[in-house]
Amino acid sequence: MPTHTGFADVNGTRLYYELAGAGHPLVLIHGFTLDTRMWDDQFAVFAQEYQMLRYDLRGFGKSALPTGGSYAHTDDLKALLDSLHIAHASFLG
């Protein structure tokens, strides 16, 4: 299954993401100290039914490190979804 990978400059940071599949968007959020690889076993399987988005939270994986200013992961996710033109999604973490 083709996967689109990229970086989004959003909310004062740079987030790494991967998109695959089609259908209702499903966002995978990794656990603390992990990154997108946490979802390797599920990503392609779920992409058969959903438009999958997995991304590295700020400071994890391939995403930029925090620069000292205040931020919220929820604000980063909202900005990422906006940049990818995803208006509604389900979430799995």
Structure in words:
The chain is α/β, with parallel strands linked by helices. The model has no long low-confidence stretch (mean pLDDT 97). The protein has helices at 40-46, 73-83, and strands at residues 3-10, 13-20, 25-29, 51-55, 90-92. A five-stranded mixed sheet has the order 1-2-4-3-5. The protein contains two helices and five strands; from the N terminus they run βββαβαβ. Helix content is 19%, strand content 31%. Strand 1 and strand 2 form a beta hairpin.
Helices and strands, with pairings:
Elements lengths: L2 E8 L2 E8 L4 E5 L10 H7 L4 E5 L17 H11 L6 E3 L1
Parallel strand pairs: 3-4, 3-5
Antiparallel strand pairs: 1-2, 2-4
Quick gist of this model?
The chain has helices at residues 40-46, 73-83, and strands spanning 3-10, 13-20, 25-29, 51-55, 90-92. It is an alpha/beta fold and 93 residues long. A hairpin with a 2-residue loop joins β1 (3-10) and β2.
CATH architecture: 3-Layer(aba) Sandwich
Q: How many domains would you count in the coordinates?
A: 1
Calculate Rg over CA atoms: 12 Å
CATH structural fold name: Rossmann fold
Strand order of the largest sheet: 1-2-4-3-5
Number of helices: 2
Helix content: 10-25%
Features:
5-stranded mixed beta sheet, Rossmann fold, 93 residues, 19% helix, 2 helices, alpha/beta
